[in-house]
Design brief:
The chain has a six-stranded mixed β-sheet with strand order 6-9-10-3-11-12, with helices on both faces. It is of the alpha+beta class. Helix 2 crosses helix 3, helix 2 packs parallel to helix 4 and helix 3 packs across helix 4.
């Protein structure tokens, strides 16, 4: 069982009487890669700053190894931070950038029997630790280069090495991949996870990018408006979202109003659909989540539902198809092409249907009408579905 390293206990944070964090209770395990995920303004960066000591909570406690550290300054915490801007010293080479923190440190002089005299870290030890970090970040041989001779990904790795060389127990990362292009960002996701596993410490990562969170994390904390919406593994968060906000924020989701007739049976569009969920009251209104990749296109006569294709966008590996079912537009991701205006049937296996209780987010997500309009603009489409086509079969 993993050891608990950090705990936020009933933490609140307010700026100008506006509550940014609302009674946050959260813990972080040793050697865990945990991601705080959510939209701008949800409180994830504020949470990171409180852990790092750059902000003090309005109320509540921050515990490190069971000890309250609310008033401990950042430089006295066993926590280092990598920010969006790497802030490398342009006049120093890679070696000296990484060594900078070590050169600033002092520790008790081993030759002083009183233990009062402080001494700098020996140069030999500095060199050994810097070279070890260069090995970890796969930049051995780059030690004499200046930052402006490095790519964005290489600069980021130097910033990480500079933070890790001091041997912290926790590394905080505040959207460090935001400035990188798409391909490099994907490469660095894998690289960051490798580094975390190799050094064996806790990484706490902040992002609004759900793909980053799913790719790297052991645990994901989904936040909105200063509160935690769900905590779980990437698989749990994606496959078993707790509410419409989580379902919409983690990947694409069709979220439809339904009624739970009984265990393992939900009603939508006047039809009954078998599912795997239970524990709801009979005839309880629910939100039904169906991922776009879990929908099979079939001939009309075989469909559980029948709708009209309003837009098709080729995405390389798949087609994104918008289908109108009684005025509510679904997204289907498929390798099969269905032309705009065609009538199609769909089938959904029971394990492709996830049932959620109604929440404050119900009715806010899951209809792809706006997506359809955006796709129309992108494709410069001139065809629009006839009004009568929205009267799809039940």
């Amino acid at each position: 069982m993993s050891k608990e390293l950090i705990r936020l206990r009933d933490v609140c944070m307010a700026f100008d009487d506006e509550l940014v964090l609302d009674h946050l209770n959260l813990y972080f395990n040793d050697k865990e890669f945990l991601t705080l995920l959510g939209p701008s303004g949800c409180g994830k960066t504020t949470t990171l700053r409180i852990i790092g000591g750059f902000a003090t909570p309005t109320s509540g406690d921050v515990l490190f190894d069971g000890v309250r550290i609310n008033d401990v300054p950042p430089y006295q915490r066993q926590i280092n931070t990598v920010f969006q801007k790497y802030a490398l010293f342009p006049h120093l080479n890679v070696f000296e950038n990484i060594a900078f923190g070590l050169r600033m440190q002092k520790r008790p002089d081993p030759n002083d029997p009183t233990g009062k005299r402080m001494a700098k870290i020996p140069e030999e030890e500095i060199r050994e630790r810097v070279m070890e970090m260069l090995e970890v970040i796969s930049l051995k041989g780059f030690e004499h280069r200046k930052p402006d001779a490095l790519s964005g990904g290489q600069q980021q790795r130097v910033a990480i090495a500079r933070a890790l060389v001091n041997k912290p127990k926790v590394l905080l990362l505040d959207e460090p991949l935001a400035a990188l292009d798409l391909k490099l960002r994907k490469d660095m996701q894998i690289e960051l996870k490798r580094i975390q596993q190799q050094v064996g410490i806790t990484f706490i990562y902040v992002t609004h990018d759900q793909e980053e969170a799913l790719t790297m994390s052991d645990t994901i904390v989904v936040m909105d408006k200063g509160t935690i919406q769900q905590i779980g593994t990437p698989e749990d968060i994606y496959n078993e979202p707790k509410n419409a906000f989580v379902a919409d924020f983690i990947g694409e989701s069709n979220i439809i109003d339904g009624v739970m007739l009984r265990d393992k049976c939900v009603k939508m569009y006047g039809r009954e659909f078998p599912c795997l969920d239970g524990g709801f009251a009979e005839n309880e209104p629910v939100d039904v989540v169906i991922r776009p990749e879990d929908i099979d296109i079939v001939p009309v006569e075989q469909g559980q539902l029948v709708g009209t294709v309003t837009n098709v966008t080729f995405k390389g590996m798949q087609y994104d198809i918008i289908v109108d079912f009684k005025g509510f537009k679904w997204l289907i991701q498929t390798t099969d092409h269905s032309p705009v205006g065609s009538r199609i049937g769909i089938k959904i296996d029971p394990d492709g249907i996830h049932i959620m209780k109604k929440s404050q987010y119900s009715g806010m997500f899951g209809d792809y009408s706006s997506f359809s309009e955006e796709y129309d603009e992108l494709d410069d489409a001139s065809l629009a579905p006839d009004e009568e086509e929205s009267g799809d079969e039940e």
